[in-house]
Amino acid sequence: MGEHDIFLFLLSLASLLTCARLLGEIARRIGLPLVVGELLAGIVLGPTIFGRIAPAAQRALFASSMPKSMLSGYTNVAVVLLLVVAGLEVDLDVVWRRGRSAFLTSVFGIVFPATGGLALGLLLPDSDLVEPGHRMLFALFVGVALSISALPVIAKTLLDLGLFKTDVGLLVMAAAMVDDLTGWLCFSLLLGPMHGHGTDAAAIGRTLALTLGFVAVTMFGLRPLFDRTLDRLGRDRHTAPRRALSLLVLLALFGASTTQAIGIHAVFGGFVVGVAAGDSSKLTERTRAVIHEFVTSIFAPVFFASLGLKVDFVRAFDLRLCLFVFSVACLAKVLGGTLGARLGGLRLRSAAAVGFGLNARGAMEIILATLALEAGLIRDQFFVALVAMALLTSLLSGPMMSALLRDDEQEDVGLLFREGAFVRDIAAKTAGAAIDELVQSIAETLGELAPIARKSVLEREAVASTGVGDEIAIPHGAVEGLKRPFLAVGLSRDGVDFDAHDGRPARIIVLLLMPPRTYDLEVRILASLARVLNSAENRARLLMATPADARAIFDGARTQPRRRRPPLPSMADM
Amino acid sequence: MGEHDIFLFLLSLASLLTCARLLGEIARRIGLPLVVGELLAGIVLGPTIFGRIAPAAQRALFASSMPKSMLSGYTNVAVVLLLVVAGLEVDLDVVWRRGRSAFLTSVFGIVFPATGGLALGLLLPDSDLVEPGHRMLFALFVGVALSISALPVIAKTLLDLGLFKTDVGLLVMAAAMVDDLTGWLCFSLLLGPMHGHGTDAAAIGRTLALTLGFVAVTMFGLRPLFDRTLDRLGRDRHTAPRRALSLLVLLALFGASTTQAIGIHAVFGGFVVGVAAGDSSKLTERTRAVIHEFVTSIFAPVFFASLGLKVDFVRAFDLRLCLFVFSVACLAKVLGGTLGARLGGLRLRSAAAVGFGLNARGAMEIILATLALEAGLIRDQFFVALVAMALLTSLLSGPMMSALLRDDEQEDVGLLFREGAFVRDIAAKTAGAAIDELVQSIAETLGELAPIARKSVLEREAVASTGVGDEIAIPHGAVEGLKRPFLAVGLSRDGVDFDAHDGRPARIIVLLLMPPRTYDLEVRILASLARVLNSAENRARLLMATPADARAIFDGARTQPRRRRPPLPSMADM
After folding, report:
1. In whole angstroms, how far apart are CA B321 and each of A492, B40, B149, B370, B386?
2. In chain A, whose CA is at the least distance from the CA of B21?
3. In angstroms, rounded to a whole number, what is the distance separating the alpha carbons of residues B48 and A106?
4. Going by DSSP bridges, is the β-strand pair A506-514/A486-496 parallel, antiparallel, or unpaired?
5. Alpha-carbon torsion B328, B332, B333, B335, what sign?
6. Which of A265, A292, A476, A501 is the catalytic position?
7. Residues B456-470, mean pLDDT to the nearest whole number
8. pLDDT for residue A161 is more than 50
9. What number is the average pLDDT over the span B5-33?
């Protein structure tokens, strides 16, 4: 390896990172996801722009053999770690507990777009295929590509709408997780034949068996081992995080090389290890934050920018194909998701919001498309169409969800507040005790339902804690026998830890009791509460409020102009 | 790039990381630095052991062309980031403020080993050289290699001895920083001729001019720009750290490619960018911690392990050469450092402790040796001798410093305590106010020296804050006109922020006033104080102590068995 190769490698890496971060930040400033800017960086530095202006310089910098391999070492690690971070966000408990409704939503959210994609793949003219002889494989891939959902984009949208930790929010998240897992699994199985490992039933069966074996070993063998090891690594402030970080990355690398050896892609191994590790309660928030920060600021931008080096986006832009892919993808996913959520018990408008939520494809779709391109399964034109679809569906998802859950749907939380209780100084130091105290404050009204309410809210809290950040927690639960919703608002001087994503203890604790199976009403109440509590001014006023002041604040929910929280970071930014 | 290449790359990376982290942790458990285990991992996986047992498998995994280039992409980024982290630890303010004594110590600490190395290089038989015709270049390299000091090892030793933030500690650190900077600069200049950029005066002059230009632009142009940019990136908890991280890494990559283009090595660029960025007050502790954690847990172990792949350590082990290099290195550096510190005003024993401190070579020496090996300047045998010397000098440094500053040297802090003051409840909330309050408590004894003492301690605090971790701060200063040392001990219920490395506010604040130029006495007093305060039990007792109890605790300093703090993490671990 010559000195000049190292120079070119470092310079290409530096250019990609700089351009990607710069354009990413600009994209964010004008309200687009980071990943749009990062992809654009590759388009600028790739054959599309830089290559047109100075083809020789572009080729020297990005296409020399040795520096290119060195860069591909970096991007391969990047994409594995990206999938680890994505896997960390999957919470299997949420899926198990959401049960039937999550199952219906995700099944319809997969079956519809998979069918649509399959049909599209079968009907496209031969000229859109790399090899018409492999049409079935191609059609299956399109089916898979159209069925995945971008968990991170959905999480971010839910956070913005104040619905992240609600029952409906968890339902969308759970459905998206199942879609993601199924999608990656199916895609992995397609890779065997793609790589010429044989298309006969025996070869596919072997790959399937090995893949399921890998998933089983990782989830049931590795997960408890990971927990125990983390436990044994101890709690030392200085060494424990580094040990946990090393352990996570080396397991991901082993998982990635195992799946690569099986004949499915490395990223699947990273993803499954991420899911298994993410479930561990021993993995601290700090370790998650460090790997998240490092991956999103150093690795992901280079990976997404490097995609632009592979393809001339202008030459490969085919409007007809883009429109086809986009229409089929949206139509099938929105319809499927909506239908599933409707059957799961939601009103049409909320169900449609779930459908649009699941429709977001984001970074995961782009990674899938890249792998298919590299495996020679799709042409550049189809790759560009998938990337465009991924970006557009992600952009559409937030505004559509927000429009469907709009103001005219809001609930009168002022009334609920007046009928409920207001505890100005909660003594409790733990989430459980705070819930107790708030249930106690409306125990008279609840009568014999009080113990049931208490149990239901505590159980719900155990599934996923209800701290929503900004010093707010909204513990809630469905109470069998309850006829209408109840609200009890408490303030805590020192704050109570509700495990919020921003790590801050909750000082405003809103207990919400719902009649069973009233998902829609719950969404509307929570959206109205978010409208009140998203304003920093309202929160400050509430913390010093007399009961009369508090009433005025909650009464303001109907008229006050909608304020959006500042965007929160998450994988969605990728 | 085939699927099999990606598999081999991921597997080789996973094996290196796993083996390095595992052996690193074992090394640490038995009291050796992490880097010993990490190097050993490479020896196990390289030609030395794995290659002897299964040569074909070893070659397939680590020597296939494409996976090897991909891995080298990773290790090249790793070594640049390693030097960034090393650079971050250099604090130029400390160097400027230590002035004459740091200057003397570092000059002697460079000149002696440089001369010794040069002589060794000139006297070794031709058979030890790659090319006898380049003997002068080789001798110059040996001179440079023997003069560098490992800042991180020294920092860790000082932390262990409780001397990190004392005047003597700062002196050693400042001298080591100058040694490091000079060593890397000289080494970089040698790389031009090594890479055949010409050995004539014009070529060397050009490289020197470009290198100094790069350093000047980075330190004076980039540093303020970095500050301003970080400032503008804002204080948002979520996005700011990721932006700072990206900015730091992309600047490092650009610096690295610039120095690589100049004809000196990429690592020098990373190092200089690290030094420039490390000086920025806008770079938060959190960003430093994240990059440090990630580099030491993911990148550094792979880099050090990969060294073992390059060389067969058993075959290349030459005892004669190891002894030569080790003896000359130790003798010259210890003598030089001791003499410099003695001339700088220290007593012989403390000066010798400084000498042994500077003698630690650590990871920096190993990186230097690797680059020389790759440039074809040294033979495998000499590489192994340098690595062995680096490890041995690092291992020796702590015990020798600790022995030289041993118990019989200790000061009677019990007496000082009885003559001083004890403030059981400090009201101050800031470091400055706490210092005020403690000076006030002995103002009567100090008389007209009180304002001078206050000014001196505050000035010293401004150079480097004196929080030493474990809720202890030892603000101190030399007071012109003072005849003997004074101690005032204060306790703070809520703690006062003295910017300790562990982030904890100080609850035990010890004000120490010294007569001017009594470095030795200061070292002894601080070592005795460390002996009292290193014990968690003593600290707990002190926090609830009556004046009589406190007296008893400080009286115990002479007799109490020495307790060591648990090892603190730092770059030394590498």
Report:
1. 70, 20, 21, 17, 9
2. A246
3. 54
4. antiparallel
5. positive
6. A476
7. 80
8. yes
9. 90
Q: State whether B76 and A10 contact (CB < 8 Å).
A: yes
* Residue-averaged pLDDT of chain A: 83
- Say whether A250 and B69 touch across the interface (CB within 8 A): no
A371: pLDDT strictly greater than 90:
no
ipTM: 0.75
| Percent of chain B clearing pLDDT 70 (strictly above) | 88
Query: Lowest-pLDDT range, A317-326, A411-420, A481-490, B67-76?
Result: A411-420
Phi then psi dihedrals of residue A476, to 5 deg: -155, 170
Query: Residue A298 above 80 pLDDT?
Result: yes
* B432 and B458 Cβ atoms separated by less than 8 Å: yes
Res B501: pLDDT: 66
Domains parsed from chain B with CATH numbers: 3-71 (no CATH), 72-405 (1.20.1530.20), 409-565 (3.40.930.10)
Q: From the CA of A268, how many Å to the nearest CA of chain B?
A: 13
Q: Residue A352, SS3?
A: helix
| B157 residue type, one letter | T
- Counts for chain B of helices (H) and strands (E), in that order: 26, 6
Q: Are B321 and B388 in contact (CB under 8 A)?
A: no
What's CA B140's distance to the chain center, in Å?
24
Q: How far is CA A507 from the centre of its chain?
A: 27
Q: What is the length of chain A? A: 574
Residue type, B269: G
- Chain B residues inside the 8 Å CB shell of A11: 253-254, 257, 261
Q: Whole-angstrom Cα distance, residue B304 to residue B296? A: 11
By CA distance, what is B191's nearest residue in A? A3
Say if CB B33 and CB B27 are below 8 A apart.
yes
- The strand ranges marked E within A404-505 are 421-423, 467-469, 472-473, 476-478, 486-496
Output the 3-class SS for B376-387: CCECHHHHHHHH
Using one digit for the tens of pLDDT, what is the confidence trace for B503-519? 678 889 999 888 877 77
Determine which of A48-62, A261-275, B233-247, B289-303 has the lowest per-residue pLDDT on average: B233-247
Q: CA-CA distance, A56 to A171, in Å (whole number)?
A: 52
Query: pLDDT value at position B565?
Result: 38
Nearest to A417 by CA among A555, A287, A559, A539: A555
Query: Could you tell me which residues come within 8 angstroms of residue A381 by beta carbon, excluding any fewer than 6 positions away?
Result: A128, A316, A317, A318, A321
Q: Is the pLDDT of residue A335 over 60?
A: yes
> Which residue in this structure is represented by tokens 């009403």?
A521
Six-digit token string for A104: 């219906």
> Which residues on chain A are in Cβ contact (under 8 Å) with B236?
566
A230: nearest Cα among A273, A287, A275, A271: A287
User: What whole-number distance in Å separates Cα of residue A368 and Cα of residue A302?
Assistant: 17
Query: Using the beta-carbon criterion (under 8 Å), do B71 and A74 form an inter-chain contact?
Result: no
Residue pointed to by tokens 């990429």: B266
Beta bridge partners of A486: A513
CB–CB of A9 and B73 under 8 A? Answer: yes
**Residue A270 with chain B: CB contacts under 8 Å:** none
Which residues are CB-neighbours of A337 under 8 A, at least 6 positions away? Answer: A105, A108, A109, A112, A175, A351, A354, A355, A356, A357, A358, A359
Alpha-carbon span B177 to B272, nearest angstrom: 12
Using the beta-carbon criterion (under 8 Å), do A569 and B296 form an inter-chain contact? no
The region of weakest confidence among A316-320, A478-482, B280-284, B444-448 is B280-284
pTM of the model: 0.76
Least CA distance to B262: which residue of chain A? A7
Helix (H) or strand (E) holding A173: helix A167-194
Q: Do A249 and B17 touch (CB under 8 A)?
A: yes
Give yes or no for a contact between A428 and A437, defined as CB atoms under 8 angstroms apart.
yes
Which residues on chain B are in Cβ contact (under 8 Å) with A296?
242
